[in-house]
Amino acid sequence: MTVREKVEKNEKLTLSQYACLSANTQGRERAETECEMRTAFQRDRDRIIHSKAFRRLKHKTQVFLSPEGDHYRTRLTHTLEVAQIARTIARALGLNEDLCEAVALGHDLGHTPYGHAGERVLDRIHPDGFAHYKQSRRVVEVLEKDHKGLNLTLEVRDGIEHHSGAGKAMTLEGRVVRLADKIAYTNHDIDDAVRGRIISANDIPKHLTEIFGDSHSKRITSMINAVVRASDGKNDVIFDTDLASSFSELRTFMFEAVYKNPVAKGEEGKAENIVEWLYNYYLCNPSKLPQDEAQYIDEYGLEVVVCDYVANMSDPYATGTFEALFVPKSWSIL
Question: Which CB contacts under 8 angstroms, 24+ apart, belong to 85-89?
Fold first, then answer.
């Protein structure tokens, strides 16, 4: 019996009746020989971690554009926090931790440079619209590995797409990640906003502090408990109904106090302009696209190729490309 088979056997013995077992995956688009060491979902996790798109997350905005300081979240650290929370919930509910981790690590691979500012622009100007959760699935299915895709299992691809937007993931593990994402960004955005003096801890409504706790750790623990308590033994993953309205109120507070704050978001207009200028430039000058991107114009269409290229950019790469294209360089006679 291989190591993989031992793990699969152990899953059948220990996981919840509602868990998605590795041995029961609906498989990949292209058949592959099974790994002797790793289950299907473990292989998916590893492929995501080793992908280019995953590495680019370290230079993509979470909420604050180009913050001065080492301790603000990036899209990568956000992703790691989502994975940690998802695994904690999965373990408590007897669900498949490896599937949760794979979905969590891949959920934001399609995010644009400059966070949601870039996403808003592409959604407005791209003929087909743009949503980062759909683009994340496109990244793993099509764009990675020189347009061969990562050939992930259906359960992971579905969970990645349904971590946001309409519809539910086909597995409970995918639904865990959807809630873990909300728990993670709500709490670490509070942490970053306090660090950046956008708000103070005392600005959080007192009754919400009394419900969820007065620290980052206490809030996360309270919210994880609210999910586990409401979901244990059920064929769904939900937030405790008694606390759901309070959680929603906390998120509303964050939207008003932080996400719409003119100090925190003062530079987003510039970021939006950069994304729009880059998109329009390559649309009007397709010959300036890198050849490894331009070769797919006949297959996908120019607008799609340009959108893929711009969306894949990290913040520094987008800024540097913009400067190279549109900012005059000084010169001198030597």
Answer: 85/180, 85/183, 85/184, 85/220, 85/224, 86/173, 86/176, 86/177, 86/180, 88/224, 89/176, 89/179, 89/180, 89/224, 89/227, 89/228, 89/237
